[in-house]
Every structure is written in structure tokens, then in C-alpha cells.
Amino acid sequence: MMEYQFTLRYQLAAQDSDALAVAERLGGGGCDDAVVGIGLPGRVALAFTREAPDAGQAIQSALADVQRIVPAAVLIEVAPDLVGLTDAAGIVGVSRQNMRKLMLASSGGFPAPVHEGSTAIWHLSDILSWLQSKGSYALSGQVIEVARVAMAVNVAKEARRLAPPL
User: Fold this and answer.
1) In this model, does residue 136 exceed pLDDT 80?
2) The pLDDT value given to residue 137
3) How many Cα atoms occupy the beta-carbon half-sphere of 39 within 13 Å?
4) Residue 166 — very low, low, confident or very high, per pLDDT cuts 50/70/90?
5) How far apart are the C-alpha atoms of 103 and 14, rounded to whole Å?
6) Cα–Cα distance for residue pair 3/59, rounded to 1 Å
7) Are 63 and 75 in contact (CB under 8 A)?
8) DSSP per residue over the chain, as a string?
9) d(Cα 57, Cα 40) in Å, to the nearest integer?
10) Average per-residue pLDDT in the chain?
């Protein structure tokens, strides 16, 4: 068994407007391996450190636990997935400036962003896979695995919203 760290963010339904009560239900119902954040009205974030054989099982079991405890909650995202250069740099353990230099020096090789605007956003999994292929960064296999599963869950969640499906 390994420990996997990830965050689940949810939008709460009107009947779950008492975020403190929701946090207590989550803690008592099987999510006692998460720190529950209730800072934004109508939202809850759970920062898990969950033991499981692999990241997929860790995240799937956490999603199932939250669904069982707060069935009307709507998943917003699994993190870490969508990141800017600053977040990616922090996860890799380099400065933002270093990450930006890597991006600019590898114009054709650095992963394309998911969104490009005043702030560009990437899938963390793409950046970590690219860095791993370079071989010059010691990256945790668990972080890479969690990022891949988080991206897969988020992309699948968004794909289900398409009508008609592509």
C-alpha cells in the first residue's frame, strides 16, 4: 500500500448549505483521511492522504465515499491537474523562472497548454511526463500517477457534459 495525496473539490447543493455539518458528516463517514476546507460558500474541498494499492483506487474510493456521504454534491475537479507554471514549478521543486526558461527553450517540445491567455494552464500530467522524458528531474512516481488519474477523471467528467457526445 502507498499513500497518495490529492484534492477533491465539490459544489454543494442547497440542502447541504451548512458546510460545518457536511464537514462533520464527511469526517465521520469515511473521509477521516482528508482535511476538509469550507472557505467558500457552497463549496467544499477535501485534501486527501489516502492509502491504496494505486492512485486510481485511492481517488476512486474517495470519490465513492464523498458520493455516499453527500450524494447531491457535484464534483468540480480532482487536483492536481490543471496548473499554471508557478504551480507546476512548486510541484517539481524548481522556481517559476526556471520552469518558464524550460518552456521557452523547448518551444516545440514543451507540452501545449490547455488554455492560453493572460495565464496559460496545462495538465500537470503532461508537464511531468515531458520532464520525466528529459531524465534530468527526480519526480515522484506517486505524483505522476496521481496527476494522470486526476486528468483522466476531470476529462471524463467534462466529456459526459457534452451533448451530443463527440
Assistant:
1) no
2) 79
3) 5
4) low
5) 43
6) 11
7) yes
8) -EEEEEEEEEEPPGGG--HHHHHHHHHHTT-TTEEEE--STTEEEEEEEEEESSHHHHHHHHHHHHHHHSTT-EEEEEES-EE-HHHHHHHHTS-HHHHHHHHHHTTTTSPPPSB-SSS-BEEHHHHHHHHHHHT-S---HHHHHHHHHHHHHHHHHHHHH-SS--
9) 28
10) 93
Query: How far from 1 is each of 29, 57, 90, CA to CA, in Å?
Result: 22, 11, 26
| Number of Cβ within a 10 Å radius of residue 93 | 11
Residue 114 identity: V
pLDDT mean over 2-27: 94
Q: Residue 160 and residue 156: Cα distance in Å, rounded?
A: 6
User: Once rounded to an integer, what is the mean pLDDT over residues 114-141?
Assistant: 90
33: closest CA among 13, 15, 59?
A: 59
CA distances from 40 to 37, 58, 136, 152 (A): 8, 25, 39, 26
CA distance 38 to 68: 19
Nearest of 6, 36, 1 to residue 144 by alpha carbon: 6
